[in-house]
Amino acid sequence: MFRHILFPIDGEAPSIAATGPCVAFARDAGARLTVLHVTAPFHLLSTSAEVLADTPDSYAAHSLARARARLETVAAEARAQQVVYETVTLEHAEPYQAIIDTARQRQCDLVAMASHGRSGLQAVLLGSVTQKVLAHCHLPVLVWR
């Protein structure tokens, strides 16, 4: 049914926990997997300690190193389960849009992603990438909680 699955990860506990099940789902479906990590662009004005402590070049280098490490976790699982995969790192101000655009550009037929499970005021203040993908994506979206 599904031949190409996009698995966006952010490196936090929910996406790490979803790695095994997502790779197993791809294996069982006979699908290939594209693993995506979206990094935030450098902003001169920011509340993020990572951005405030860096110059644009060092921020880019640190972001790429973090992305590679996070992607390698999924790549190792895909190799172990013999799933064909590729990894992609993108810089984008809106992660949900990067996810949707990547799914379209790479001709994926499913987006499989984790949810942080935020609710109440925390969900309102922080937003939800998963909710935005669900609301705007033209593809089926499988959410792990």
UniProtKB/TrEMBL annotation:
Gene3D superfamilies: HUPs. It comes from the Bacteria. Residues 1-144 form the UspA domain. Belongs to the universal stress protein A family. This is Universal stress protein. It comes from Duganella margarita.
